[in-house]
Specification:
Two copies of one chain form a homodimer. Chain A contains five helices and eight strands. With 179 residues, the first copy, chain A, is an alpha+beta fold.
Chain lengths: 179, 179
């Protein structure tokens, strides 16, 4: 599975209005805490990979997932191979990873307000320490990467945003840059 | 969490009769497929650790769990630190581990008939390629390891089995020895 994702800095109130005009379907708001790891045998900063446990919660429920992200496969967008699955207990996965020599690298905390528009998910992200961003995202197989990216650019245009403002650095990367 | 476990070779029919006499509660029978991994940065055979994905199925249902087992912490039994949690999709965890450089080492397939006796689980294991075994197992915290081991020996005696026949090598180890 490939994750195609385009991200820009943007004021949420303006984008929210545009989403209403476009009749985007609200998918609700969640908080996400992402715990990133360093590997004992590779420098993820160099190999451009990531391993994380995410705890996602809304008012009713919480779910924990473990995610591996491979290096960028397409430079025009933030497209990566992704392996992600729900886990019963995120703390146990943390203990398992620690026992294997993976070390806690950093935590990214954000509030994510999601909308569905065409076949894309538009996320209005408020990231602690970084500010407001808009992400346009979809999943596809290998041959679908290029059309999915073109479609994501179109969604950005519809929202009054400019693909040229795209930020290819992850929130984790942006936070580490700030340190 | 520590897993205290004592294992002997034993004919199941005799033990099954003894379990009936002792009014042990049947917990049903499952099949377990255990997929073990080699690490890219450590020799698990040397460090005496294990990482596996288990697919456990009964007639109605299947569940997949990921498990890390640390080195033996008590020589008198097969006691290890264990981190285990359910995962949504075992195949995705396999892809995630492969991407991180973990390689498939071996698969252990068994049928496991479980009983509850006192605070122990007694498993009648039929392991493909190895034959019939009985495991007496419980979970405890660090201070409970010694009493839990003594209790497991008592359960073995009750079942007409001898703790001196204990096999400390894992099924994986036994299968690899046979190769």
């Amino acid at each position: 599975m490939y994750e195609v994702e385009v991200k820009v800095r943007a004021d949420h109130e303006t984008v929210r209005e545009r989403l209403r005009e476009l009749d985007a379907r609200s998918l609700g708001t969640v908080t996400q805490e992402d715990f990133y790891y360093d590997a004992p045998h590779r420098d993820f900063a160099e190999t451009d990979e990531a391993l994380r446990i995410r705890r996602e919660a809304d008012d009713d429920d919480a779910v924990e997932v473990v995610t591996y992200k491979g290096p960028l496969v397409e430079q025009e967008s933030k497209t990566r191979k992704e392996h992600e699955t729900v886990v019963g207990n995120g703390e146990t996965v943390d203990q398992l990873l620690s026992a294997l020599g993976f070390e806690s690298a950093a935590t990214v905390h954000k509030e994510r307000e999601r909308y569905e528009l065409d076949s894309y998910v538009v996320s209005l992200d408020t990231v602690t320490g970084l500010g407001e961003f808009v992400e346009v995202e979809t999943e596809t197989n290998e041959s679908g990467v290029e059309p999915a990216r073109v479609g994501a650019y179109e969604v950005l245009h519809e929202l009054g945003l400019d693909p040229d403002d795209q930020i290819r650095t992850s929130y984790l990367g942006l936070l580490l840059e700030d340190e």
